[in-house]
Specification:
Strand order of the largest sheet: 1-2-6-7-9-10-11-12-15-3-5-8
Structural class: mainly beta
Helix content: under 10%
Order of helices and strands: EEEEEEEEHEEEEEEE
Strand content: over 45%
Number of helices: 1
Oligomer: single chain
Shape: elongated
Number of strands: 15
């Protein structure tokens, strides 16, 4: 974490964030005639890196890389019974298959157009999931404190938009909803 000088005579700095600085969480919903039997999953990732390249005080480039295999099913809400450990293992396995993790080990987001907003920044860039690239816009809230910058973002991603088929069973009677919610929270420490 923290700044790294890039170049010798430049005011450009590159800041890096990872799991020790915050969290990247996905929540799913369920749909279909048997939806009440399934669980809404909370999933987090233990391997991710975010970098922010800043020229003076202006962010110029934001990059995020997520190691898909680091996906962990934190919990499952709803369903007929509480989610068990073996069910979490099975849900993780199904999620890795849905994300084609063996062929595409990383999810990436690269924002090259960054605009200030009242609460922080709007990032316009490209999201790459399972080999499919789509344009993605994300609003990031940035609050400066004594500790550094508290960063947060909430967005959704559609399975269909990135060419993935949501997990389903019982001939589609129970399936993961098309849109998943992504939440990012981190603190970028002061240098």
């Amino acid at each position: 974490s923290g700044p790294d000088r890039v170049g010798t005579m430049s005011a450009t700095q590159k800041w890096s964030l990872g799991p020790t600085d915050g969290e990247l969480v996905i929540t799913t919903d369920k749909t279909g005639p048997a939806a009440k039997t399934g669980h809404r999953l909370t999933i987090d990732f233990e391997d991710w890196t975010g970098t922010v390249t800043v020229d003076g005080t202006v962010p110029e480039l934001v990059e995020l890389r997520v190691g898909v295999d680091s996906l962990q099913v934190r919990s499952g809400e709803g369903g007929l019974t509480p989610m068990t450990g073996p069910e979490r293992v099975l849900a993780r396995s199904n999620a890795l298959k849905s994300l084609k993790a063996s062929k595409f080990p990383d999810i990436t987001f690269t924002a090259t157009r960054i605009s200030p907003t009242d609460a922080g920044y709007r990032l316009d860039g490209e999201l790459v999931v399972a080999g499919t690239t789509i344009p993605k816009q994300v609003d990031v809230t940035a609050v400066q404190t004594d500790e550094g910058w508290h960063l947060s973002a909430d967005t959704t991603v559609s399975h269909k938009a990135v060419g993935l088929k949501p997990y389903s069973l019982a001939m589609g009677a129970l399936k993961v909803a098309d849109e998943v919610k992504l939440e990012f929270r981190a603190t970028l420490p002061r240098p």
